[in-house]
Write a structure and sequence with these properties.
- By secondary structure, the protein is mainly alpha-helical.
- It has two domains: 64 residues, Arc Repressor Mutant, subunit A (Orthogonal Bundle), CATH 1.10.10; 122 residues, Orthogonal Bundle (Tetracycline Repressor, domain 2).
- The chain contains nine helices and no strands.
- Helix 1 packs across helix 4, helix 1 packs across helix 6 and helix 6 packs across helix 7.
- The termini are far apart.
- This is TetR/AcrR family transcriptional regulator.
- GO terms for molecular function: DNA-binding transcription factor activity; transcription cis-regulatory region binding.
- InterPro entries: DNA-bd_HTH_TetR-type_CS, Homeodomain-like_sf, HTH-type_TetR-like_transc_reg, HTH_TetR, Tet_transcr_reg_TetR-rel_C_sf, TetR_C.
- It holds the Pfam family TetR_N.
């Protein structure tokens, strides 16, 4: 029974990995259960026993493999250094995953409400928690007031990283991340009277 359970886990993992690979290669609209079955060396019947259709399959794959939180950076005791550590982790996560997969998920989210909800709750929310932790620690140290709303900073930093990755194609190097903090995030804190 244990061996059969383990085989089932291996089979499921192969199907979910194949789903993400194909999603990045051909896109959500052209992703088929036949293609997933062929890539995973599985039968369609096996896939349909576990998932009722493509949205459910993609949602499971995103939950399992694309939503893993980045390791939480160690606290440095300094807001600037902590922000830089979070941005470095975000960059690593964005560039470590296949950019085509990330872009395809963003496009598919516009057409599939269930997929969008899962990506927002499992990927976006998880990634923003690290930023919230940095802000909370800065508040605890007295660097920021307790009224600070970190959501704006999460949105701006994420948008700038995405624009760099998908729009301009310019490098997401350390110098750029430092400029993002010094020229955008800290000035916003000052302008808001929070620093």
């Amino acid at each position: 029974m244990v061996a059969q359970g383990r085989r089932g886990e291996v089979r499921e993992a192969a199907i979910l990995v194949a789903t993400l690979e194909l999603l990045g290669e051909v896109g959500y609209d052209r992703l088929t259960m036949d293609a997933v079955a062929a890539r995973a060396r599985s039968s369609k019947a096996t896939i349909y026993r576990r998932w009722s259709g493509k949205p459910e399959l993609v949602v499971s794959a995103v939950k399992r493999y694309a939503a893993a939180p980045a390791p939480e950076p160690a606290e440095s005791g300094d807001l600037r250094q902590d922000l830089l550590a979070v941005l470095l982790a975000m960059r690593s996560s964005l560039t470590g995953q296949d950019a085509a997969l990330i872009l395809e998920l963003m496009l598919a989210m516009r057409r599939d409400a269930e997929l969008a909800a899962v990506v927002r709750s499992q990927v976006v929310a998880v990634k923003s928690e690290a930023f919230g932790d940095v802000i909370a620690r800065a508040v605890a140290r007295g660097e920021l007031p307790s009224t600070v709303d970190h959501a704006l900073f999460v949105e701006i930093s994420s948008a700038m990283l995405f624009a760099r990755l998908f729009v301009s194609g310019e490098p997401l190097d350390d110098a750029y991340l430092r400029r993002l903090i010094d020229d955008v995030l800290f000035p916003l804190l000052r302008q808001s009277g929070l620093q």
